[in-house]
Amino acid sequence: MKFSTVSAATLFLGLTWILSLTSVSGQALAPTRKLPLSEPLEKYNMPPAPPRKIETSPRMISQFGVFTSYQANVDANGNNILGDAANEPSISVDPTNLNKMAIGWRQFDSIQSDFREAGWAYTSDGGIHWTFPGTLENNLFRSDPVLNCDETGKFFYLSLRSDQAQSFFCDDVWKSITGGQSWIQGGPGHGGDKEWFTIDKTNGVGHGFQYQFWTGFFACDSGQFSRSTDGGLTWMTPINLPSSAQTGALDVDTNGNLFVAGTVGGGFRCLRSSNAQIGGQTPTFDRNTTVNLGGSLVQGGINNIGLCGQTFVAVDRSGSATNNNVYMLASVEPSGRSTTDVMFSRSTDSGATFSAPQRINDDPNFQSKWHWLGTLSVAPNARIDVVWYDTRNAANNIDSQLFYSWSTDGGLSWAPNVAVSTPFNPQAGYPNNQKIGDYITIVSDNTGANVAYAATFNVNPNAVGGHEQDVYYVRVSPSGGPTPTPTATATATATATLTSTPTATATATATATATATPTATSTATATATPRPTPTPRSGPTPRARPTPRPRS
Question: Which of 146, 299, 389, 530 could form an SS bridge with 400, CB 3.0 to 4.6 Å?
Fold first, then answer.
């Protein structure tokens, strides 16, 4: 079934709550909502932004201690584009050459318009320099980018799309065999709002299969789940998921079992299918496990009309003692709170049971601070990496920094949190679509992890709040932030170990003057390497709530 724009206007009158904002320290802050609403469907059929004169400034390279963030959404000359916006980035890394990566994002050619396209950039020198050739299709409305890479180095780009035929909430998967430099369009993927996908990279019978799920209430045609056995060219007729799980992610264990994690009725579920890997069978789900993450997903608050996080799942395929552990993580609002924490749970029995929720953010006064857009990944050597936005150092409780923590014992204990970026105002640079996206992403390798996130470091007096939304790449690791294999153009700066108590004033502020080349100067002082904290923490049991409806 497809919705008409008339029915959309009726369905989404609830969006008027957005106009009712409260002020915190002179800045707008939307109330949190336990029932996220999707954007009006008529927005998916709007005309492209009108042509405008393109002006540029030097690209931003933001240094914070040993961590260097490089702007990815730059023009052909490597410069920042003034007056646009980029957010909701998804990163993928070539496992055969860790210097090759691709990032996709929601590209707004003008902050005066809500029309967005599928932007992307690629790098071949470990993220120091990025090339943004353009969008997947000019003047075609696209959203919710999700990237992945198979074990041979083929990149895939899942994109929600809408055209003048009103194909609301439909999607397709694009493939790149050139390291992300060019893309080939696949066939229709059915799809729906908040779609996500994964690739079976194991050596089992489902090798190469792609699995996708989305919010069934806002679907292209039907269902909530589909599978492709030919690399995203064709997709099976969608089926429904048990409990209608939504707003989450998927992963596959070494036995080919598929895990789907999402939110259901204010709580969380982890679904397992052991036969999705059998191409001749319709996938069924033999496990549907309730997972306590200590709260619920919310929309609003610090991210205006956006989500404060979604559900992520990652499986350990290291072959070590923690092999096939299933990990779930989300930024949730605990009962009785109006801010969010990054919460984690693990399963050691293939998703049959999960541990009590564990809080990753370790700030002592966490109850009043925001810890949002948390995401995780697992390295081939079993290390778990987690990053998120954090306001612990902000007097206004809005300015955010990217934070990082990791675990080397299967999530039983976590290293002290480390600030990775300079502070930025996430409410600056808004296009008409007033949020900084609904997620950020991370991909791990044996020595560290690659992160794509949105921030507002670039100054633009004509933008909301005087800054622009852009997409950045940063390398994080337990020993610092250099690239995995520096090239001739790289000037690696990080030989120091992480400080266990970083402060927001360690380096230049977010309004520091942009530079055109990497800087080799680090202002962080080396101290002892952080030690994992041994005591897991439990969160409160969430209240039952209505099923959230996610956002694009």
Answer: 389
Q: Considering all CA atoms of the chain, what is the largest pairwise distance in Å, rounded to the nearest integer?
A: 61
- Other C-beta atoms within 10 Å of 26: how many? 7
DSSP assignment of 330-392: EEEB-TT-SS-EEEEEEESSTTS--PPPEE----TTGGGS-EEEEEEEE-TTS-EEEEEEE-T
Give SS3 for 155: strand
Alpha helices for 34-93 (secondary structure H): none
CA distance between the termini of the chain? 19
Q: Tokens 């395929």 map to which residue?
A: 317
Give the dihedral sign, CA 153/262/280/217.
negative
Q: How many helices (H) and strands (E) does the chain have?
A: 1, 33
Q: What amino acid is encoded at 6 in this protein? A: V
d(CA 248, CA 104): 18
Looking up tokens 């439990």, which residue turns up? Answer: 538
DSSP sequence for 207-260: TT-EEEE--GGGBSSS-SEEEESSTTS--PPPBPPGGG-EEEEEEE-TT--EEE
Amino acid type, 539:
G
The answer for residues whose C-beta is within 8 angstroms of residue 12's C-beta and 6 or more apart is: 37, 38, 39, 40, 41
The answer to whether the beta carbons of residues 99 and 123 sit under 8 Å apart is yes
pLDDT > 60? residue 37: no
What residues are paired with 330 via a beta bridge?
343
Per-residue DSSP letter, 49: P
- Which structure tokens are listed for 460? 């633009």
Residue with tokens 């930024």: 331
Q: Could you report the per-residue pLDDT of 136-189, keeping only the tens digit for each?
A: 999 999 999 999 999 999 999 999 998 766 677 899 999 999 999 999 999 999
Closest to 455 (Cα-Cα) out of 194, 67, 52: 67
Q: What is the pLDDT of residue 31?
A: 74
Please name the helix (run of DSSP H) or strand (run of DSSP E) that holds residue 10, with its range, or none: helix 5-11
- Report residue 522 as tokens: 């680090």
Which pLDDT does position 39 carry in this prediction?
Answer: 56
What does the alpha-carbon distance between residue 310 and residue 375 come to, in Å, rounded to a whole number? 8
The C-alpha angle with vertex 376 and arms to 436 and 78, in degrees rounded to 5, equals 50
What pLDDT, on the 0 to 100 scale, is given for residue 34? 60
Phi first, then psi: what are they for 6, rounded to 5°? -70, -45
Rounded Cα distance between 308 and 305, Å, is 9
Spatial separation of the C-alpha atoms in residues 540 and 552, rounded to whole Å: 29
CA dist., res. 4 & res. 17, Å (int): 23
**CA 138 to centroid of chain Cα atoms:** 24
Q: What is the DSSP string of 508-521?
A: --TTPPP-SS----
Token reading at 114? 């809500």
Q: Is 58 helix (H, G, I), strand (E, B) or coil?
A: strand
* Rounded-to-integer distance, Cα 272 and Cα 253, Å: 10
Other residues' Cβ atoms within 10 Å of the Cβ of residue 491: 14
Percent of the chain with pLDDT over 90: 74
pLDDT confidence band for 54 (50 / 70 / 90): confident
